[in-house]
Amino acid sequence: MHGWSGKFLRVNLSKNKAKTEKYDAALAKNFLGGRGFAIKILWDELNPGTAPLSPENKLIFAIGPLTGLTLPSSGKMVIAAKSPITGGYGDGNIGTYAAVHMRKAGYDAVIVDGKAEKPTVLLIQDGKVSFLNGEDFWGLSSFETEEKLREVYGKTVGVLSIGQAGENLVKFANIVCQGGRAGGRPGMGAVMGSKNLKAVIISSSAEPEIAYLEEFKKLSGKAYKEILTKPNYSFWKRQGTMMTVEWCQKNSVLPAYNYREGVFDDADAIGGFMMEKLKIAQRGCPNCNMTCGNVIEDSEGKESELDYENVVMLGSNIGLNDLRKVAVLNRLADEFGLDAISLGNTLGFAMEASQKGLIKEKIEWGDFDFIKTLIKEIAYRKGLGETLADGTLFLAEKLGGTAKEWAMNVKGLEISAYDCHSAPAMALAYGTSPIGAHHKDAWVISWEMQVGRESYGENKVDKVIEFQRIRGGVFESLVTCRLPWIELGFELDWYTKFLYAVTGLKISWDELNVIADRIYTLIRAFWVREYGGNWSVEMDVPPARWFKEPLTKGPLKGAKLNREKYDEMLQMYYRKRGWDSRGIPTKTILMKLGLTDVAEKLEKYVKLTA
Prior knowledge:
single chain; alpha+beta; Aldehyde Ferredoxin Oxidoreductase,  A, domain 1; six-stranded mixed sheet; four-stranded mixed sheet; globular
């Protein structure tokens, strides 16, 4: 097969064994790669009820047919497992040279299970797999680990590692590479740590086969030039995602003080133009010519790579108005291997709990020195950090009362950086995200501001599904970055052309959308299977704060979501997805998508609707 190697690498850490196996070509046809492969493997191979931090959980590194090739922003990889913070399907993508090397190495997925007897570094090098003693690296930050490994194995190898947070099983620990690229928000770093796997090194000098090489080279060259012509390119290169701070402030969707507000008085102090004044470098993922990693020198004199979500969650959401100090917190998160979005949410929740007298610790909004200490405590599970390390849902359940109403998560995963007091479509996107609250699957908020934020109509449900298909279904399975399309307007037709040149297969967007629906429906089946009789519509509903507590400041003062209208949108979403009123796939849609065997297995856990 062109575009796919047709091979997986299976690694058992308990036995220090690895083997290559072939898979049926139908898997590529039906699930494409990346996220599609990950959920199919987890559904087929993971025993229902498997504890996320047990040796039996599978940690999957997966790429797609376009990954790692010389086409725009292709240096991406999906990392997936059953999530320790949600108990459902979890994944994240990461821009990394490990993706490029994995493509060269000829593995469409690396599937890791078991638990090493002692800290281990997995080395995949030119067809040989080695299990290296990682004890000297255990206890080091992700930055230190990668630096030391590169000194030995070369500056150009791909390295994925965890920091102390992953080692200590913090439930929102992620996986880090290249001094600030991070992925796996739903605790993929904790899963890696639970297996005593400190790092993965991938290196290969081989080149992947392409169906129509000369056509691909011409197409690729045109594509890179096309991106340079886009109207927003120059401003994007200046600010990247940091431009979003000012946009969100203008539209009253900037999270402030644990999502109590949609504006922040000092937004300019942490925004894109302030970043430009402090900017000293720019970084990007492999094969990208619209690099978005803006680097500044933080208040401790060290480099920190910034983007919108991290800055806002560690800035306005916790009341901190100094970008250089925010950059310190962001760097610490990356060094420790903590997801900055969940970290900022958890800190904001703890501050509000302190303000309300629900915890004994006194934490003031924007208290930089205390927050620095607390971040380290979370990474090492010490003091208050021991409790915060499990995330906002766990802490809210522990506090009881109304705490769940202002614990800003969906299904246990903390909400990323957009307030939805007056953005019902974006609220629906968070509610129905396949990994818990995250914007990557359906960032509809910009479109929603243009068409009217007050409405709860069918057009919004349609747009959420459309974006989920494109962003979460196709891009997450190709695997390439969605930013050329969503930020610069790089046309979607490019990707069917790339697919044809690479694979030799003519796959239309209609066919890609069916694949995306198959992936989303299988992910939903996985969630329902894992929760069984505990599955509820309420799992697709954002926190009560957005419905009960109106904004108290800004141009949208008084705004809040309408729960009844949200529920109507949610039911409409279910119907359009072919799911029943509980949000569970029907037998009809499962059979239509070629998932008949899934229906048979799922019926053991819940009664399916015809």
